Amino acid sequence: xxxxSFRFSKKKITFIVGLFLFAITAVLFGGKLIGTVQQTAAHxxxxxxxxxxxxxxxxxxxxxxxxxxxxxxxxxVMEVKIPEEFDSIYEEYNNLQKTQGMDLTKYQGKRCxxxxxxxxxxxxxxxxxxxxxxxxxxxxIGGDISISGEESSTHGFSxx
Length: 160
Prior knowledge:
Order of helices and strands: HHEHEEEE
Structural class: alpha+beta
Number of strands: 5
Radius of gyration: 24 Å
Shape: elongated
């Protein structure tokens, strides 16, 4: 038979209780922290890579990387000019791009192609959801997911 006894001072007990509370807090908030790190990593990935979008296959691959299912062909393809000076609406749109690791200020005054696709798997919205891509010199430089109708809204490529 083995008998063990331990003596703890008040300092040691306080330290152990504090460590225990820290561990519980880490477990509770760890999921949220991991999600934030993953989202930041996704944004860094967009920013750090040259995002190819010169071919239909490259554009489809990019959109699908966010989990979206889209039509095989774009609904519209048109040439657009990014304004030389941004008004408040375009500033707000560019702020959305910045949250995705993109920045349209580098392309002010430039012409680019705008591709729009119908999104087929938007939660609780079987229709009226559009994915827009802006492509300059064969690279994706911006875009969004837009919902039209009574509850219209626009957000970045991420599903969350």
